[in-house]
Design brief:
The chain is built from eleven helices and 16 strands. The protein is α/β, with parallel strands linked by helices. The mean pLDDT is 97. The chain binds 5-S-methyl-1-O-phosphono-5-thio-D-ribulose.
């Protein structure tokens, strides 16, 4: 059972995803600054996992607050929240988790709780966010698993597994695990997912551990696999889903959706409600993170491209909702038109 982030009295424990699959090393992060750095530097990644980490980071930051006045505590909360919110811009789960922690904090302040009570309340709230996420993934696995036909091969992109969430199931990999759990025979084709190789390093690692048959391909092989009948469904996760269903996910997801449509293969997005941003009307409003060009010019310390080459490295793209067959959530499966079906999930 993979749980990539844990709260302990010492600090936040994180499995260093940068080192996988070669090394399974756990880091103990003892301050909110270390948690923020871990999110920024991809020790932890994946939308729900980033949100949970930010919640723990806030709880940790406030645990170390040394003042006694409520006003100072409120200032400190906003300072820590601001640092954490500037780590990665695309996954809405980060901002969702910070906002939920803020509501809990303000409620405790308005009830006149003491500083030590508030510290405890924040730790408990962060743990609750984590527990709820694992439960949400389990429901996604159950609902999503039903969409996968027995004997299918599912193509997935990036890592939307236990590592990318609170743990255990995952979103896209949750659907695959759910299908297996329901007694179906299922195999996976994993895109390596250039430039950061979350597919080759992380998805492959998770599936090998779970003994789910997985075949690794480079990203540019996906069209061939679909056209030659080797793929029965595509399932991906999401970093932010707009109110109209447009979905930001790892760069290359849009390409897969277009290929799936061309080849008449269902294209599913699996995500918890914490990934849906009803304040974003369409995908055009979703900020796309631009990452360091070194991720493209180098693999670890090996140089692949000429010194000084110009590089573009958008980390995500937006798949227009018309390419998405269904969005699988813990509250059920949303189908087009998404403006209506997504809103209904929140009723
Ligand atoms: O840059 P990353 O590794 O954080 O990107 C992760 C993804 O794009 C995932 O597919 C997404 O966060 C869904 S995770 C359940």
């Amino acid at each position: 059972m993979i749980v990539p982030v844990k709260w302990t009295d010492e600090g936040v424990l994180m499995l260093d995803q940068r080192l996988l699959p070669a090394e399974e090393k756990w880091l103990v992060l003892r301050s909110y600054v270390e948690v923020a750095d871990a999110i920024r530097n991809m020790v932890v990644r994946g939308a729900p996992a980033i949100g949970i980490s930010a919640a723990y980071g806030l709880a940790l930051g406030m645990k170390h607050f040394v003042g006694t006045s409520q006003t100072d505590m409120e200032d400190e909360f906003e300072y820590v929240a601001d640092v954490l919110s500037k780590t990665r811009p695309t996954a809405i789960n980060l901002f969702w988790a910070i906002e939920r922690m803020r509501k809990t904090f303000q409620q405790a302040i308005s009830e006149g709780k003491s500083v030590s009570e508030i510290k405890h309340i924040l730790v408990e709230e962060a743990k609750r966010i984590h527990d709820e996420d694992i439960k949400a993934q389990e429901k996604i696995a159950e609902y999503g698993g039903r969409l996968i036909e027995d004997g299918s091969t599912v193509l997935t992109h990036c890592n939307a597994g236990a590592l990318a969430t609170g743990g255990v199931w995952g979103t896209a990999l949750g659907v695959i695990r759910g299908a297996k759990h329901q007694g179906k025979k299922v195999a996976v084709i994993a895109d390596e997912t250039r430039p950061y190789l979350q597919g080759a390093r992380l998805t492959a690692w998770e599936l090998v551990k779970d003994e789910i048959p997985v075949t690794l391909i480079t990203d540019n092989m996906a069209g061939y696999m679909m056209k030659t009948g080797k793929v029965q469904a595509v399932v991906v996760g999401a970093d932010r889903i707009a109110a109209n269903g447009d979905t930001a996910n790892k760069i290359g997801t849009y390409t897969l959706a277009v290929l799936a449509r061309e080849n008449k293969i269902p294209f599913y997005v699996a995500a918890p409600l914490s990934t849906i941003d009803l304040n974003c009307a369409t995908g055009n409003e979703i900020p796309i993170e631009q990452r360091n060009g070194r991720e493209i010019t180098h693999i670890r310390d090996i140089q692949l491209a000429p010194e000084g080459i110009q590089v573009s490295n958008p980390a995500f793209d937006v798949t227009p909702s018309e390419y998405i067959s269904a969005i699988i959530t813990e509250k059920g499966i949303a189908r087009p038109p998404y403006e209506e079906s997504l809103r209904k999930l929140f009723d």
